[in-house]
Task: structure prediction
Amino acid sequence: MSDSIETARLQVLRSYGILDTPREPAFDDIVTLATQICAVPVGLVSLVAADRQWFKARRGFPSCETPLSQSVCAHALGSADGLLVIPDLTADPRTCENTLVTAPPHIRFYAGAVLRTEDGVAIGTLCVIDMAPRPDGLKPDQAFALRALAQQVMAQLELRRAVREREAALTAERQARDALAISEERYRLSSRATTDLIWDWNPQTGRIHWDEGLSALYGYRPAEIEPSTDWWYDHIHPEDGDRVRRSVRAAIADASLRWSERYRFRRADGTYATVLNRAIIVRTADGTATRMTGVMLDATQQAEADAHREMLSQELSHRLKNTLAMVQAIASQTLRDAPDVASARDALLQRLLALGKAHDILLAGNAERARMEAVIRGALALHDNARPGRLQVEGPALDIGPKAALALALMIHELATNAAKFGALSAAAGHVGVTWEIEALADGPQLRLSWAESGGPSVVPPSRKGFGTRLIERAFAGTVAGAVALDYRETGLHCVLTAPLAGFQGKDGILN
Result:
């Protein structure tokens, strides 16, 4: 038997999944009927595998399989007319030395109808066996019946395979439905859990699907939302619209698999959110874009943080430019008040160290908590000449968060710098009072902080607001949702800051 024929037979047997399966009534009934028709004691449905013949059904034979060396059915597979009859196995050279012939059970007669697929692949036989020779073989009607029953065996095998394939298909379909249901449920849960907007767009039809985030995050009622590209573009800020359209068209036209843009998107209340929109592009084999699926992240806080970081960068530059002027002012004040050179040297060293500490407060801003009094005194340290009453700092013990600590240090530092240059701290008799208190209001406790200068030169409002003044007015307002009022009194600058206590005690990092 050629290798190709054997390979085909083994592949078919594997496709049926029949080997080593339990007995089944349909096959047993066929074997019983064959033995009755042919008047023999033994009947088998024999399947010829790689190294054995295995009996799917058997009657009158004890073993469920035998090695190929004992197989008579293997000789039948090449039968031209599909039926092999050997009247006396001891007289046939193919079987005379078979141990089933020479030793128990001493079989003598064999007739096997080939089990053949529609493609012509022989996989075994339906055979009948007798313990006595039968010189006349099978009668014509017996031969006909054996062939017919062999076809019924094949029909059962095909039916069995069809049932298996159908069950496998149903199982696969059920698993696919379950997987789809799980995927959809996961999508719904993730959509609800995320703070981002998920969308899916068909660039061919222009139809776009928005998830619930469009309502939850941007305030649109379902009736206001249109599943179209035009609706999306119409809600992009006019200054960003052309850029976003060009970007989308370019991503669709080339071979890009990803797209990303930052722009301003209009909320339902008319305000704009800064969003970062990212998507993957699904393409066909020829490169045609069929879908864009993406996530639109609200990056408003990040944009505000970037702006705040830029302000801090400007402030750092401002502070560096003023460093020499501050050192000069410290040196001048120290030398004016010091009784001798040695005292002046020590005082100047301490004040320069205080200047470094003030910059540490300006740049750190990441501690979990800071004492409000420590922040204020740290920012004022370089202006303290130890003269009684020159700097008065009073208020209840209060821990504040890192954002508030940094903003407060910036503000006090700026006020003190201005006071040292132009206000009370520029005069030997001038002094500054910094006080704070907590006020109980209907919508929650409020912190009120006051900076009051006296004993310095007359004060007049500036003709224009410099960066320092803008910083004083804006640093706290943007950080702790507070308000700053500057009053340029003739006796000295008076600054009042009010803000919710919760704004002071937030734990978020300054750049978070």
In short: The longest helix spans residues 140-193.
